[in-house]
Amino acid sequence: MAKPHQEIFSTRSFFILAAIGSAVGLGNIWRFPYVAFKNGGGAFIIPYLVALLAAGIPLLFFDYAIGHRYRGSAPLALRRLGRWTETLGWWQVMVCVMIAIYYAAVVAWAGMYTLFSINRAWGDDPKGFLFGEFLQVAEAPGVGLDFVPSLLIPMLLVWLVVLATIALGVNKGLALANLVFMPLLVVMFLILVGQALFLPGAAEGLNALFTPDWGQLGNPGVWAAAFGQIFFSLSLGFGIMVTYASYLKRRTDLTGSGLVVGFSNCGFELLAGIGVFAALGFMAFQAGSTVDEVAGQGLTLAFVAFPTIISQAPLGSLMGTLFFGSLTIAGITSMLSIVEVIVAAVRDKMNIPKAKATLVVGIPMATVSIGLLATTTGLYFLDITDEFVNKFGILAGAFSCIVAVAWIVRKLPTLRRHLDRFSSFPTGRFWLVMVGGVAPLVLGYMLVSDIIAKIQSPYEGYPLELLGAYGWGMSIGLVVVAVILAALPWRRGVATDFDETDNEHEVTA
Length: 509
Hints:
- The longest helix is centred in the middle third of the chain and has 35 residues, at 316-350.
- The chain is mainly alpha-helical.
- The protein has helices at 12-23, 26-30, 32-38, 45-70, 74-81, 86-119, 126-134, 149-167, 170-197, 202-210, 220-233, 240-245, 254-287, 291-294, 298-312, 316-350, 354-373, 378-408, 412-422, 428-456, 464-487, 500-508.
- Helix 6 crosses helix 8 (149-167), helix 8 (149-167) crosses helix 16 (316-350) and helix 8 packs antiparallel against helix 17 (354-373).
- The protein starts with 11 loop residues before the first helix and ends with a helix.
- The protein is built from 22 helices and no strands.
- It has a single domain (12-490), classed as Amino acid/polyamine transporter I.
- One of its GO terms (molecular function) is symporter activity.
């Protein structure tokens, strides 16, 4: 039942590298350290590991099983799993569309800051440089088309690199890119961490990160933060691992691969935490303040705090090149996986060659991305869209998919048998309970809590009309578009039906 010209990773190592490349992204470097710091420090490791074992790895297996068994992109695999569940696959694809549109901008900024680090172009005011000279952010949130010419070329280069790599195919493009980028990322980050550890004040930064606040373990919000971090950092719930698993050979150790990916991702997050907080400890030492006064996450950490550190640290230019180079590489490998989900879905639906599907997807997306993000109001679009896509796109889409598969089409036992056929690590009933019971409860709690919070207090105080357009409206729009795409006919030649009996014979033969 495989689609025509099914792409296949030539080795399991290529798949593992690509999956790790997808999981290790910007959030590992600029989000995890702050989340851990604010949620109990060293004590956060306990809920973090519980979340990894109870939800992260089981859901990773869940995505692997769907993609590997039903041999297709997210929409095609879910269509074969249950006819009406195709809509859930397109929902995941649309989430990837929105993420790719703004993700390209952040990767481009990181690339530019790699160059800026050489001569410390931000001068004595990193914050003013970022929001003023570099991004030229409009004073008032809104929608505008005032272009920032200096952002055009770096964003265009990011899109060209990503689309060219994907057009080359799974082995010559994705696999080779990750084969080069992932070892390079690890080496660069290890050097960065080694440099940061020898800075004055580094020990205070590490103490701030790892000193446990055991009282936080009784706070439900801390556990929700742990599950949220694991969920987002492993690229769960938006079609990436489903798509990548569809490229695996039939006789593949799925659970063994998943364990390698899951623990590698978490290992990199801990490494990032050490490097970031050692550097923040130095920043606090230089400023004569405490670590909690200088700690931040996201854009503030990457493009304001770190330039400040780079300007003050010995061999600061080297540190800046390593830090922003790492951000660029991590961003590229993650963006490759995001765009691959969209290209694979279009290729399946239209039954067209990979290169053509890449152009069909890439040209409109790059145009919209540059048109929205290379403007003075692009930062407002990025901030709102990122928040709402993560919460009401990824979370809601994943929750719906798990509930549909586990409780409506009731395919979890089938997926469990598929996982256990050739895998080195049997899933057992524990996996059924975690995916069918614990995961929906946790995701549902996180989703409801966030909806209530955003209704009670508008996100970051943005105007309601802007939140309505970029936030709530976009979140609803993704579902509407998904329903429309699912209603469109599949091109002749694509096998959308699936015979479970025939597949059982094929896999066990």
